[in-house]
Each structure stands twice: as C-alpha cells, then as structure tokens.
Amino acid sequence: MKMNDKGGEETTESGPSSTWAELTHECLINILSRLTLEQRWMGPMFVCKSWFLAGKDPFLNSVFDLETHFDSLTESPRWWIPEFERKIDSMLRSVIEWSGGSLTEIKTRHCSDRSLNFAAERCPNLEVLSIKSCPNVTDDSMCRLAFRCTKLRELDISYCYEISHESLAIIGRNCPNLKVLKRNLMNWLDPSQHVGIVPNEYLNACPQDGDSEADAIAKFMPKLKHLENRFSKLSAKGLASICEGCTELECLDLSGCSNVTSRDIANTTSNLKHLKKIVKPNFYIPRSVFHMDRYSHWRLYDERFQTDVFRI
C-alpha cells in the first residue's frame, strides 16, 4: 500500500491504490482458501508469481473436488472425448504434485489410469475417492491404489465399466476402513437418457457380473455402512451374500436392480439390525415401450414384482 507525504493512503482517480503482490504468503493462503478449486484456477493463480506460488501451497491442495462443478452442469458429449480426459488428468496430476502427499480427497469424473496411478504413488493419506464416469479407469490403477492408499473410507466408482469384481476384492482386503461404496451403473433398462451423450459402445459394455461383484463386497467389505448398487444385475443370491457379509449396513440403495423382487429384499435384509434406509427397485415404463410389445421383458418385470409402482 502506498502512502502520501502526510502519512495517509495514496489515492488515484480510480480510488485507493494497493500493491496486492506485496501481501504475505500467509495472507494469500488465507484469501485463496475461501475460494473453490475452480475459482482459484480461473484467475488468482494468473495474477503474479507470488499468487501462483501461493496457489500451489500444500494447504490449499489437500482436496481435489470437481464434482460440485460437474453436478452444476448438464452432462455433455464433450466430457467423453480424449481431449477432455487429458485436461482432467493434467489438473489432477498438478494438484497431486502440489499437495506434497497431503491429498485426502479426490472427487472428479473422466480421469484415467494415468492420473490415478500417479495418485497411488503420491497420496498415501487418500481417504475419499470419487471417480464417476471414467471409461479409461481400469483394474490396473485400482489395484495400485488399493495397495498404497490403505486409508480409504469412501469409494465411488459409479459408471466405471472397466473396473471389475477383482478390484473390489483387492480394495476390500487392503482398505479395512472402507465404510462407503457406490457402485452404480447407468440405466440399462431405459438407456434413452444417455443416447447422444455417452458413446454407444460404452453403454453396451455395461458389466454383467453383478453376483461376482456382490460376492467380493460380501467377503471383503464387512464394515460397509453405506452401499449404492443402482441398476446392478445382481440376483437374489448376490443380494443374500451382501446382507450376510455386510451386517453393519445402514443404507442400501437397490434402485433399478431388476433381478431382485420386493420379497427377495425383505427376506435377505431381515438380519440387518442397523439398516435405517433402503431404496427398493422402482421402475417407470415408458408408454411407447410398453405398447411396443405387451409380451416383452417389461411385462415380465411387472409379473415378477407384482407391485403397483408401475405407471403405464
């Protein structure tokens, strides 16, 4: 801040003049900590060298959260192209490097094995990992994370179709503190909401091994309290395995699980003494689909469930 000859603050036609670059590192950290990750990257880090260095401070990079940004926007086909994935990977790798090992949360979409393998090497304190809609995240990076990030307590791998039950087993073995698992699939019963956005080949790659995943969850994640398994293809047998192995469950979301009935759910969850919330399969049948073929699989669902939740 500049002072005039009388000891007062110097002013210009546009008001008081300030030399923001002269703020101490501690002051800059205090200011930047009040901004979101996106806000910091969109402006302050380009002001000057001292602001850029402050933005790289480990204190500001213990959390990488882009999920709020994705949630605020309508899903776009642009998110599924390689160029966008590379940008997300680049951002994540930068934050991992700047965190100096202090990164505890990663919440993003459309990253790949490239950045997650880097996270496995540099983030031993990682506790929350949410990586929805990542077509190029595979068992390779998941296994590396499982062996090196053993403090994981929350994991969201929804819509990641290249991750198999093998990863779930290894994560369960190596991450004993895991309490939250979200393994949701896209609505394969009525994929129209994804057409034109998600590549068709990816929609068609929907995992078929619902019971294998259920077995891995049951055997290796006994301390789970929250499980989301929307549109999974698990059967009553798979659900029984989960309920027998994960007796501490408090929340169970089975939305869209067409292979289990209300009776199956009632029978298998009876031993879950801590269960506070359960979301059962609930289907909306498009009128056009129903009238297309009265004897198609939609009618089979109607007969199987024998409920009144269908709105024709």
Automatic annotation (TrEMBL):
<dbReference type="InterPro" id="IPR036047">
    <property type="entry name" value="F-box-like_dom_sf"/>
</dbReference>
<dbReference type="InterPro" id="IPR032675">
    <property type="entry name" value="LRR_dom_sf"/>
</dbReference>
<protein>
    <recommendedName>
        <fullName>F-box domain-containing protein</fullName>
    </recommendedName>
</protein>
<dbReference type="InterPro" id="IPR006553">
    <property type="entry name" value="Leu-rich_rpt_Cys-con_subtyp"/>
</dbReference>
